[in-house]
Design a protein that fits this description.
disordered N terminus, globular, mainly alpha, 12 helices
Length: 292
C-alpha cells in the first residue's frame, strides 16, 4: 500500500512538474508540447523553453505575452473609435508585427508546422493579420479580430494569469464570461460591418452593440431592426447562440467551484479544490494549493 501511495504521489509530482500553476494543457497547445526527444538547443529549443518552460524566465515571458495579448484585444475593441486618429495605422502595423512574430514562433516550435498552419485558430490569426496589414482591402473581415479574445482564453498563458491573480477556482466562470463576451463583440462587429449606414438605423458601433445586446436578451425593442433576409438570419443566429451562451454562463456561476487538474490515472479534469483523491478512479492527486 505504501508503495502504491508513493507511486501515486510520484505521478502527481510529475504532473505538477509539468504544470506548476495547474493550468491545463489546452487544445491549442497540446499537440505542440515538445517531445522528450525534441532538440532543446538553437532557436527552436529556446522558443520552446520560453513558451512551455516552468522556470522564472519562461513564466515571465509567458506572462508578458499574455499582457501584450490583452493590450491587443483592448486595441481591437476600441478600433472603431481610434480609426480616425493619425497614430492608428502605426499601432495597427505594430500589432501586425507582433502577431506575425507569434505565428512564426509557434510554427517553429510546433511538432508538425504544416498541421499547425491549417488549424482553425491559426487560419483566423492569419486573416486577422491580413486585416492589419491591408486594412482597406480586408476591412470587411475586421470583426474577426474579436476571436483573439477566445483564442487567448484557450492558451496556457491565460491559465497562468488566472492562477497568479488568485482566481483559479473561478477559471470556469471566467472562461464562460469570455465566450459570451467574444460572441457579443463578434456579432457586434459583423452587424456594424454589414449594416452600417443602411435603413437599419445603425449609425455607429454603439448602435450595433445595443442591437446585439437587445437581441441576445430577446428584449427586442424594435427601434433598430436589420433589413432583408441577411438581417433576419443574423437576428435568428444571434438569439439562438446568445441564449445558449447566456445559460452556460449562468450554469458556471451557480455550479460549485472546481479546479482544473488532469488526473494522471484517468484524465478527469475537474476536481474539488481540496480534493485528495480522484472521484472517478480514486488516484491520489497533488493539486497545487497555496493553503488559503
Amino acid at each position: 500500500m505504501t508503495n502504491s501511495k508513493s507511486g501515486g504521489a510520484d505521478m502527481g509530482d510529475e504532473a505538477n512538474d509539468r504544470d506548476p500553476v495547474a493550468s491545463p494543457v489546452t487544445t491549442r497547445d497540446a499537440e505542440d508540447l515538445p517531445r522528450e526527444d525534441a532538440p532543446q538547443s538553437g532557436l527552436r529549443g529556446t522558443l520552446r523553453r520560453l513558451y512551455y518552460g516552468t522556470d522564472g524566465q519562461a513564466v515571465g515571458f509567458q506572462v508578458t505575452i499574455g499582457i501584450v495579448d490583452l493590450a491587443v484585444i483592448l486595441f481591437f475593441l476600441a478600433g472603431p473609435y481610434l480609426a480616425r486618429h493619425g497614430t492608428y495605422l502605426v499601432i495597427d502595423y505594430a500589432i501586425a508585427a507582433l502577431i506575425a512574430f507569434e505565428l512564426t514562433a509557434r510554427a517553429l516550435i510546433a511538432n508538425n508546422p504544416w498541421r499547425f498552419l491549417v488549424r482553425p485558430m491559426t487560419l483566423v490569426d492569419i486573416v486577422i493579420l491580413a486585416t492589419l496589414l491591408f486594412p482597406e482591402t480586408f476591412s470587411n473581415f475586421a470583426f474577426l479580430r474579436a476571436l483573439r479574445i477566445w483564442s487567448f482564453s484557450q492558451s496556457r498563458v491565460f491559465g497562468i494569469l488566472v492562477h497568479r491573480a488568485g482566481c483559479r477556482e473561478y477559471q470556469e466562470v471566467i472562461g464562460a464570461c469570455i465566450n459570451f463576451v467574444t460572441f457579443l463583440f463578434l456579432v457586434t462587429g459583423f452587424v456594424y460591418t454589414a449594416f452600417f449606414a443602411t435603413e437599419s438605423g445603425i449609425s455607429g458601433f454603439v448602435d450595433a452593440l445595443y442591437f446585439t445586446v437587445a437581441t441576445i436578451t430577446t428584449t427586442g425593442f424594435g427601434d433598430i431592426t436589420l433589413p432583408g433576409t441577411l438581417g433576419k438570419l443574423t437576428s435568428i443566429v444571434t438569439m439562438i447562440f446568445g441564449i445558449s451562451l447566456f445559460v452556460r454562463l449562468a450554469q458556471a456561476i451557480v455550479r460549485p467551484n472546481k479546479v482544473r487538474f488532469s488526473c494522471p490515472q484517468c484524465g478527469l479534469n475537474r476536481h474539488d479544490a481540496d480534493a485528495v483523491h480522484c472521484k472517478a478512479c480514486g488516484h491520489i492527486l497533488n493539486i497545487p494549493d497555496e493553503g488559503m
